Amino acid sequence: GTLVTIIARPSDREALTALMFTESTTIGVRYTEMNRECLDRVSLEVDTPLGVIRFKVARRADRVLNAQPEFDDVARAAAVLGLTPLEAYRALLADGVAREER
């Protein structure tokens, strides 16, 4: 058997069920509605040894729980400095920039 998982809005369920019945050999479709909670997020520009890098900062109840550099900014800085994105990311972590945003 094959398992197909579709994540969609509840309002799209009927159309997607119809699609599964007409475009596959299935004779049954299961569905479950789920909820999702997200942390509040902001984007901050931080002056780092690699240049200005945007960070996604996630908070809950005014407490910072996560801060991650934007990959595109890290990759751009890495290219300018002749580093791989991973080397640039590790340099940011070693410098403590991500921790300072907490």
Descriptive tags:
102 residues, alpha+beta, 3 strands, 25% strand, elongated
Overview of the structural elements:
- The protein is an alpha+beta fold and 102 residues long.
- 36% of the residues lie in helices and 25% in strands.
- It is built from 4 helices and 3 strands, in the order H-E-E-E-H-H-H.
- The chain has helices at 13-23, 71-81, 85-95, 97-100; strands at residues 40-48, 51-60, 63-69.
- A 3-stranded antiparallel β-sheet has the order 1-2-3.
- Strand 1 (40-48) and strand 2 form a beta hairpin.
- Helix 2 packs across helix 3 (85-95).
- The termini are far apart.
- 12% of the residues are buried.
What pattern of helices and strands is seen along the backbone?
HEEEHHH
Widest β-sheet, arrangement of strands: 1-2-3
The oligomeric state is single chain
Summarize the amount of helix as a percent range: 25-40%
Report low-confidence residues grouped into runs of 5 or more: none
State the major sheet: 3 strands, antiparallel
Alpha-carbon Rg, integer: 21 Å
Structural class: alpha+beta
Question: What portion of the residues fall into strands of 2 or more residues?
Answer: 25-35%
Number of strands: 3
Question: What value does the average pLDDT take?
Answer: 92
The helix count comes to: 4
Name the overall outline. elongated
Give the end-to-end Cα distance, rounded to a whole number of Å: 46 Å
